[in-house]
Design goal:
382 residues, four-stranded antiparallel β-sheet, single chain
Length: 382
């Protein structure tokens, strides 16, 4: 009797448990999930390499004194802009102007001496012609016994002496010509020294640093100013060697500073050598001429390794699927249906679908999918 009672209790409990599970399954099967749906959208997808780069100017340098002397004037303060060809500073102008004037006078003197030497050559040439005529006449008369031997010898001596005199005049003229050339060189040197006393640069220069003040005496080679061309600013970055093949000239770069996009550029230089210590190489990209980024600024870079247009879906719609695959839920006549997808790049909250044919024209669940299981009834919110 007791055995029968125990058996009945167990049977009753089993029936209750079975009924409970069946009721729970029916409740799950009948639940309705509110969702929002969308379709595949065309989108531009990018593969981005993120790095940091430093802004620097390609045309920059220290402007030093070319000549020794006292600084008369520095025309620009730090932060000032010097236009191309404008003098940056002036050193001892009065002294170098006087030296130029002296060189000019020296040249005038040498030219006058040359002119005198040339006149002496012409005069000796005339004398030689007369001495030659006298000598030839004396020779004829001497042969006819019309003049004495002494008269003939005097004519010959005068002729030979005149030739020697002409040779001397020519030598003096040559020396005078060399002195003229020497004076011309001295004048060029004095002019160059004066020009070097107020140097300029061939680009629009921003004065970044001023090392000396007016009235100071400086020697040749003393730094006076440090300048750069703002229009030549570029961004430089060192990248791991494993990306060398992908960082090709022309590759696009987005430049960010302070979380805001500053400009867009592209790689124009890629080092052909890998630094052996860091195993990195350098890339450079030119910045717009009107960039507000200053030299020395550290910027965030997004280097576009790949860019293509394709079909994609909101990234939140893509969920981890079976066996490590990715999947999305579709609205198939009001019932949730899972579909495996092959994903590509993700950009701006969209994920690229590489084989979109199976999803073309389908309603893809883009909101509420985290609560959906395959086979659930769906209520689509519009």
């Amino acid at each position: 009797m007791m055995k029968h009672s125990i058996f009945s209790s167990i049977l009753f409990a089993a029936l209750l448990l079975g009924c409970g599970k069946e009721a729970q399954q029916n409740n799950v099967a009948e639940r309705t999930i509110k969702v929002q749906t969308g379709t595949l959208q065309e989108h531009t997808f990018r593969e981005i390499f993120r790095a940091q780069g430093m802004v620097e100017a390609s045309r920059k340098g220290t402007i030093s004194a070319f000549v020794p002397g006292r600084i008369d004037k520095i025309y620009y303060d730090e932060g000032s802009i010097a236009e191309p060809g404008k003098s940056l500073f002036q050193i001892d102008r009065e002294n170098f102007s006087i030296q130029l004037e002296i060189a000019q006078k020296d040249l005038e003197v040498m030219k006058s001496a040359r002119l005198s030497a040339q006149q002496n050559v012409k005069l000796d040439q005339i004398k030689l012609e007369k001495a030659e005529l006298d000598f030839n006449r004396a020779k004829t008369l001497y042969q006819s016994k019309a003049i004495s031997t002494d008269a003939y010898e005097q004519a010959e001596t005068n002729y030979n002496g005149t030739k020697v005199s002409l040779d001397g005049a020519v030598a003096i003229d040559n020396a005078a010509a060399a002195k003229v050339q020497q004076a011309e060189t001295g004048l060029k040197l004095a002019q160059k020294t004066l020009d070097d006393s107020h140097p300029s640069v061939p680009f629009r220069a921003l004065v970044l640093e001023r090392f000396r003040e007016e009235s100071e005496f400086v020697g040749a080679g003393t730094p006076i100013l440090f300048v750069e061309d703002p229009a030549s600013r570029e961004i430089s970055c060192w990248i791991s060697a494993i990306y060398w093949d992908r960082m090709k000239p022309g590759t696009g770069i987005d430049v960010y500073f302070g979380g805001e996009k500053a400009c867009t550029s592209s790689i124009y230089y890629r080092s052909e050598a890998i630094d052996p210590a860091s195993r990195t190489f350098e890339i450079k990209a030119k910045l717009p001429a009107d960039t507000s980024l200053k030299s020395g600024t550290l910027c965030d870079l997004e280097i576009v390794l790949t860019e293509r247009t394709g079909l994609g879906v909101a990234s939140d719609a893509v969920l981890p699927g079976r066996e490590g695959r990715m999947s999305v839920f579709l609205n198939e006549g009001g019932i949730a249906q899972a579909a495996d997808v092959h994903c590509g790049l993700t950009t701006g909250g969209f994920t690229e679908i590489l084989s979109p044919e199976q999803l073309t024209g389908k309603e893809i669940i883009v909101k509420g999918q985290a609560f959906v299981r395959e086979g659930d009834k769906l209520e689509v919110e519009r």
